[in-house]
Specification:
The chain is built from ten helices and nine strands. By secondary structure, the protein is α+β, with helices and mostly antiparallel strands. Strand 5 and strand 6 form a beta hairpin.
Length: 293
């Protein structure tokens, strides 16, 4: 099953209840630009104030921020304020530029946004499997499925995405190239084989470290234990499947690597505050507790 290959832009203009601290989602999308006519100038836009995060999947665009010109290829993002002194565009004679993007209001989130930029810069590199990009992909899929139906759900999605960016910065996720090879190998293996049933001893063996040293090193650099990271990847994949398929809970549990539906429900509730059934039905706000520390 191929998930997330469609493109589209989804805008949100909810009337937010007065006095409530909500994060305003303006738009989310997945684009595939093929023409050099694709060009945005932050000094002439009148739809702000907005914060823009755009992440390249394939191809390469260019962002000009004040006096800097930076190529934004696969695995790189840029963070800019609108209005602002920046331009981004597809240069001539370049292959198609494919990307995710999100636009949201700066109210409530500007301090976190500035902290993120201070930590990772305004044109950071992020693995496609990193938590912020998974959150952005899931947000897009929820929008495409018509499941962001009120300002509360929209706010929850925006807040989750920004907090994942904060976590990424705080946990040195931006410096994965500086992680020990054993940690990078283990994280890559989990991301690719999250449904496999492998114990921590085997994971440590594959990393080339003793179990104790592996667990201590992994937690230090990733910011959580291997089991916590494994559950996080599995539950995020399960969230995608709950939203995009009509599979039973037991089938989804097996698909993401849990031996029983009951244990899957227990872990899902612990990490999200909901059961898989209530999440799928939309009776509760999604992601209101999807912070895995």
């Amino acid at each position: 099953m191929s998930i997330g290959r469609d493109t589209g832009t989804y805008g949100f203009r909810f009337a937010e209840p007065a006095g409530l601290p909500l994060c305003g989602l303006f738009a989310v999308g997945r684009g595939r630009e093929t023409s050099e006519a694709y060009r945005w100038d932050g000094t002439t836009r009148d739809d702000g104030p907005l914060l823009l995060f755009q992440y390249t999947l394939e191809g390469e665009g260019v962002v000009e921020i004040e006096d800097r010109v930076v190529a934004v290829g696969p695995g790189r993002a840029f963070l800019v304020e609108i209005p602002g002194r920046h331009r981004y565009y597809l240069p001539p004679d370049k292959p198609p530029w494919e990307f995710y993007f999100i636009l949201f209001r700066p109210s409530l989130l500007l301090p976190a946004w500035r902290q993120i930029k201070e930590a990772v810069g305004d044109v950071p590199s992020l693995p496609a499997t990193s938590a912020p990009i998974r959150a952005l992909k899931n947000l897009f899929e929820e929008a495409r499925a018509g499941k962001i139906a009120d300002p509360f759900a929209a706010s929850s999605h925006v807040y989750r995405f920004v907090m994942e960016l904060c976590r990424f910065a705080a946990s040195r996720g931006r410096e994965q190239d500086d992680w020990p090879e054993a940690v990078r190998r283990a994280v890559g293996w989990i991301d690719a084989h999250y449904a496999d049933m492998v114990g921590q001893e085997e994971l440590a063996r594959m990393s080339g470290l003793s179990k104790y040293h592996f667990l201590r090193t992994f937690s230090r650099f990733v910011g959580m234990t291997p089991n916590d990271y494994w559950n996080r990847v599995r539950i995020e994949r399960a969230i995608e499947l709950l939203g995009l398929t009509d599979w039973s809970v037991d089938r989804i549990a097996a698909e993401v690597g849990y031996s029983s539906g009951s244990y899957f429900i227990k872990v899902f509730r612990k990490l999200t505050g909901q059961t898989p059934g209530s999440f799928r039905s939309g009776r509760e706000l999604p992601y209101s507790r999807l912070f895995f520390d």
